[in-house]
């Protein structure tokens, strides 16, 4: 679905004038249809996440599915696991190490997943600041028939991801999901959770997995449930 300026303003919690200002400055990705600006849901999420802007989970609510069977953020992290000392000296090597560390179904082609992630990185950095990157946004990784999983990987050494704040990345999140709808909902929840200062502090000091999961549960509970307001 292509969103209108009004929808974008509502879901980014900003005035429509600011949306037009971002468009004029070439900051916000949009498409022109009959001289009207339109936005892609996935690209809008990627753009807002990279800038740590508050977003509404309504943006990714499927009117036909609603919240049916949506997994929780904590459950997805428990399924994906928290991994420490992930090796690598550059983007490609740490992405490869991350994919190897993830718990994936046997039928998943790991080389294909790596290629998707590298293609996304070549289009621009997935770093979101505070030494964190989410290398998976533009090309969602969907594994049909499997459970949703988010892997949290702490790198053995910081790696330059071309972050806007200039800081090297020490932490990666990535996910595999059964559907694109679930992918977008979980990614929106993760983006909102990363606004929580206590969770960020726990990630920065590489707290034990049990402590990180407690912070995730608390941060997720503070996120309002989405309502299918958009057509």
Description of the structure:
With 231 residues, the chain is an alpha/beta fold. It folds into 2 domains: 2-55, Multidrug-efflux Transporter Regulator, Chain: A, Domain 2; 73-221, Mannitol-specific EII, Chain A (3-Layer(aba) Sandwich), CATH 3.40.930. The protein has 9 helices and 8 strands. It has helices at 5-11, 16-24, 41-50, 73-80, 91-101, 110-123, 180-193, 197-204, 209-221; strands spanning 2-3, 31-33, 36-40, 82-86, 127-129, 132-133, 149-159, 169-176. The strands form 2 sheets. Strands 4-7-8-6-5 form a 5-stranded mixed β-sheet. Strands 1-3-2 form a 3-stranded antiparallel β-sheet. A hairpin with a 2-residue loop joins strand 5 and strand 6. Helix 5 packs antiparallel against helix 6 (110-123). The chain is globular, with a radius of gyration of 17 Å. It starts with a strand and ends in a 10-residue tail after the last helix.
> What is the count of β-strands?
8
List the total number of helices. Answer: 9
What string, H for helix and E for strand, traces the elements in order?
A: EHHEEHHEHHEEEEHHH
Number of domains: 2
Task: Choose one word for the global shape.
Answer: globular
End-to-end separation: 9 Å
Name the average pLDDT. Answer: 83
Q: CATH top level of the largest domain?
A: Alpha Beta
Task: Enter the CATH topology name of the largest domain.
Answer: Mannitol-specific EII, Chain A
> CATH superfamily of the largest domain, please?
Mannitol-specific EII, Chain A
Oligomeric state: single chain
Please give a handful of descriptors for the protein shown.
single chain, 231 residues, alpha/beta, Multidrug-efflux Transporter Regulator, Chain: A, Domain 2, Mannitol-specific EII, Chain A, 2 domains, five-stranded mixed beta sheet, three-stranded antiparallel beta sheet, 9 helices, 8 strands, 17% strand, globular
């Amino acid at each position: 679905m292509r969103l209108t300026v009004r929808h974008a303003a509502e879901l980014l919690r900003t005035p429509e004038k600011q949306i037009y200002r971002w468009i004029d400055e070439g900051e916000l990705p949009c498409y022109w249809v009959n001289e009207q600006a339109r936005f892609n849901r996935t690209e809008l999420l990627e753009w807002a996440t990279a800038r740590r802007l508050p977003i509404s989970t309504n943006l990714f609510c499927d009117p036909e599915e609603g919240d049916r069977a949506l997994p929780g953020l904590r459950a997805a992290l428990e399924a994906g696991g928290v991994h420490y000392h992930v090796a690598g000296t550059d983007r490609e090597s740490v992405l490869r190490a991350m994919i190897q560390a993830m718990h994936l179904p046997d039928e998943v082609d790991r080389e294909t997943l790596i290629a998707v992630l590298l293609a996304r990185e070549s289009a621009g950095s997935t770093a979101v600041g505070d030494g964190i990157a989410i290398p998976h946004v533009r090309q969602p990784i969907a594994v049909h028939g499997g459970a949703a999983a988010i892997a949290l990987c702490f790198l053995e050494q910081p790696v330059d991801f071309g972050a806007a704040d200039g800081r090297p990345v020490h932490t990666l999140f990535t996910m595999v999901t059964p559907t694109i709808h679930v992918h977008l909902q979980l990614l929106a929840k993760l983006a909102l959770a990363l606004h929580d200062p206590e969770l960020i502090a726990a990630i920065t000091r590489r707290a034990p997995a049990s402590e990180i999961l407690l912070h995730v549960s608390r941060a997720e509970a503070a996120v309002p449930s989405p309502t299918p307001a958009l057509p």
